[in-house]
Write a structure and sequence with these properties.
Number of domains of chain A: 3
CATH topology of the largest domain in chain A: Uridine Diphospho-n-acetylenolpyruvylglucosamine Reductase, domain 3
Distance between the termini of chain A: 43 Å
Number of domains of chain B: 2
Oligomer: heterodimer
CATH topology of the largest domain in chain B: Ubiquitin-like (UB roll)
CATH superfamily of the largest domain in chain B: Beta-grasp domain
Number of helices of chain B: 5
CATH class of the largest domain in chain A: Alpha Beta
Structural class of chain B: alpha+beta
Strand content of chain A: 15-25%
Bound molecules: flavin-adenine dinucleotide, FE2/S2 (inorganic) cluster
CATH architecture of the largest domain in chain B: Roll
CATH class of the largest domain in chain B: Alpha Beta
Number of helices of chain A: 12
Distance between the termini of chain B: 66 Å
Order of helices and strands of chain A: EHEHEEEHHHHHHEEHEEEEEHHH
């Protein structure tokens, strides 16, 4: 369908964008890559009076890596992450996951800030933000604030962002160089949203014992979430095939999958376990299980 | 809503267009400039028929406002060759029967042109992954992949020495 009538304004800075949101009084929306917002408008699921295009704000396009942090500006696109040699060296999980996000053409426009604000429970970046201790940096009429990603990404298509606020960046704590990581998701077709996906990382001490285990799920819950039971099953143990199997059982016990036209809850639950096995075996450096289990 | 003026370059020619702010780039190209080679299938980003090249990168023109193309350089399928002088991908598509009804074809050509310009050595797996974002209901994709592989030579791909 054609888009509903609307007004279009360009913001040249974050403060100008915030001013425009304030003037819009709840009826203005940020336009970043448009890869989720324009479909939403085309389906007439929303009809804001004004779109505030932030695409020209150069400050929001930066990837900054310091000794302590890795920060992605709100306008960093999937393709920028996919190709970033700095990220490949310092947080290789991020570029590796990008191959699963949408399609080639969409990766040339879709952005970090747009994905977090849209907050699709099956989207990859919200899952990474929650699993890898991400902090979302927002700016609004009352100034700048920071919040852990889990406190912002609280429900399907319902991020906790005020009407006069926008996301400026997503910040991760810097990774240890030897960190082990894995990612697996299943979608019906390449580039579709995941029916279930697992993000995992941990460190290993000198004895090979897994420490600081992070396991998060997308697609099989109403929001991206970490799975403390599965993390506990691996924490302090050597990640061999048996231990990983225990962690996968914990994943299946813990997820609360939605039921929809694409899959039953039982199917998604089983799938989350299979994806956990793949992601954790990848992280542990074990060969992929022959039968997908 | 009031119309807005946008300046953009399409296939090497600068244009100034007056559009309603809600106009997508796809509609501006088709209705504003008469470039109907860019096809509109789904209008919500899933089919890829509307793909154009913006500053060298393939993008869905139904998921961009015309206003977002301000000061950008667009290449549409019309910019890839002429009927009497087909571009290398177009010639390869014709040779390999990589189109039947042709509805999807402009999106495949623009996508593959952007890909091979950046990655002339893209292999069959990479090409298949990239065109997964374009729906074709007729060909079954096999001939499209073959055509793209052959067209790579024109983009600078060197065949590995056969031994
Ligand atoms: C066919 C198709 C398949 C897709 N598959 C996937 C997939 O597999 N995985 C995946 O993760 N995504 C997928 N996407 C979505 C895509 O990645 C989007 O680009 C992304 O979710 C939103 O980013 P955007 O920059 O395009 O945001 P926009 O569409 O511009 O905005 C989305 C929402 O976020 C708000 N917003 C944008 N930027 C900000 C900001 N800085 N601060 C506050 N609010 C903001 C907007 O107001 C809007 O509500 C798919 C999209 C399509 C069309
Ligand atoms: S018309 Fe743009 S993707 Fe289908
Ligand atoms: S040739 Fe008919 S849809 Fe592709």
């Amino acid at each position: 369908m054609k888009l509903p009538p609307l007004q279009y304004v360009r913001a040249s800075s974050v403060s100008e964008a915030v001013d425009l949101l304030v003037q819009g009084a709840g009826d203005a929306r940020i336009l970043a890559g448009g890869q989720s917002l324009i479909p939403v408008l085309a389906f007439r699921l929303a009809a804001p009076a004004v779109l505030v295009d932030i695409g020209g704000i150069a400050d929001l396009k930066r990837i900054d890596i310091t000794d302590e942090t890795v920060t992605l500006g709100a306008l960093v696109r999937w393709v920028d992450i996919e190709r970033s040699t700095a990220l490949k060296a310092h947080m290789p999980l991020l570029p590796a996951v990008m191959a699963h996000v949408a399609h080639y053409q969409i990766r040339n426009r879709g952005t970090v800030g747009g994905s977090l604000a849209h907050c699709d429970p099956a989207a990859e970046m919200p899952g990474l933000a929650v699993t890898c201790d991400g902090t979302i940096i927002l700016e609004g009429a009352s100034g700048r604030r920071e919040a852990p990603a889990v406190e912002v990404l609280t429900g399907a298509l319902a991020a906790e962002i005020a009407e006069d606020e926008m996301i400026v960046a997503l910040r991760f704590p810097r990774w240890r160089p030897e960190r082990r990581w894995g990612f697996a998701e299943f979608a019906r077709r390449q580039g579709d949203f995941a029916m279930a996906g697992i993000v995992a990382h941990f460190d290993q001490d000198a004895d090979g014992v897994a420490r600081d285990v992070h396991i998060g799920v997308i697609g099989a819950t109403d929001r991206p979430t970490r799975l403390p039971g599965a993390e506990a099953a691996l924490e302090g143990r050597i990640p061999d095939a048996m231990t990983i199997r225990d962690a996968c059982r914990a994943v299946q016990d813990e997820v609360e999958p939605p039921e929809d036209i694409h899959a039953s809850a039982a199917y998604r639950r089983a799938l989350a376990g299979v994806m956990a096995n793949q992601a954790l075996r990848q992280a542990a450096g074990l060969p992929a299980a022959a039968n997908g289990q | 809503m009031d119309e807005i003026d946008i300046t953009l370059t399409v296939n090497g020619t600068a244009h100034i267009l007056s559009v309603s702010p809600r106009t997508t780039l796809a509609d501006a190209l088709r209705q504003g400039l008469g470039l109907t080679g860019t096809h509109v299938g789904c209008e919500h980003g899933v089919c890829g028929a509307c793909t154009v090249i913006v500053d060298g990168a393939a993008m869905r023109s139904c998921l961009m406002l015309a206003a977002q193309a301000e000061r950008h350089a667009i290449t549409t399928v019309e910019g890839l060759g002429r009927p009497e002088a087909l571009g290398p991908l177009q010639a390869a598509f014709r040779k390999h029967h990589a189109l039947q009804c042709g509805f999807c074809t402009p999106g495949f050509l623009t996508t593959l042109h952007a890909l091979l310009t950046e990655e002339p050595d893209a292999d069959a797996e990479r090409i298949r992954e990239v065109v997964s974002g374009n729906l074709c209901r007729c060909t079954g994709y096999v001939a499209i992949i073959e055509a793209a592989l052959e067209a790579r030579a024109a983009y600078g791909h060197q065949e590995a020495e056969a031994c």
